[in-house]
């Protein structure tokens, strides 16, 4: 059964008989449309619609994928995610909120200026603040584990990779894996701040806001969480070797 987050009736039908739900939905960025498929309609209102439909269908557990609690600047995507988190906590549903740090597959990819194939990298800020890059596949493992793990009940889990490393350290890891020297271009925090403040489109505001958060760093200590979840986290080094060998 399929449902559209913007269509209450379709969600009501789609949720019938569902016992657990994992939500990873976002309009950012490939499905984004400024009118029909935007942050307000999908990330905020659509996710709240899904929570209400899940509640009406007596879904036993709802797992919501947000992003790091340390990413707390003012921009549309962050504000929508936090509003949904609050609504879910207040809904009365048994729930888990996953707050992953920066996805390797996004923030160490050409989509945001990290281009190993051409040995060119764009870094945000001075590139020295540590980030707990995490694989989206590891986040998926956490989501599945949360279905049965009592430690996930009504919990908010900050998720990161096995270590906090700087953007520049990530560059060095890719250089070692590829045997090539990368050209590094820096985008200063002031520039990112100006871009966010000047942008009229919520997606552009959010992209600049996220880049500003990356510049300021996002290091997450996973020791306590890994005592409750037996998940082997992917390192940036492992990811770099895999990407280089695939290219």
Describe it for me?
- The protein has 247 residues and is α/β, with parallel strands linked by helices.
- It has a single domain, classed as Rossmann fold (3-Layer(aba) Sandwich), CATH 3.40.50.
- The protein has helices at 8-14, 39-56, 76-90, 104-107, 136-145, 167-178, 189-198, 202-216, 223-228, 236-246; strands at 20-23, 61-65, 95-100, 114-115, 120-124, 130-131, 155-159, 165-166, 183-187.
- It has a 4-stranded parallel β-sheet, with helices on both faces. Strands 4-5-9 form a 3-stranded mixed β-sheet. The protein has a two-stranded antiparallel ribbon with strand order 6-8.
- The radius of gyration is 19 Å and the shape is globular.
Annotation keywords:
10 helices, 15% strand, 247 residues, globular, Rossmann fold, 44% helix, single chain
Structure, briefly:
The chain has helices spanning 8-14, 39-56, 76-90, 104-107, 136-145, 167-178, 189-198, 202-216, 223-228, 236-246; strands spanning 20-23, 61-65, 95-100, 114-115, 120-124, 130-131, 155-159, 165-166, 183-187. It has 247 residues and is α/β, with parallel strands linked by helices. The mean pLDDT is 94.
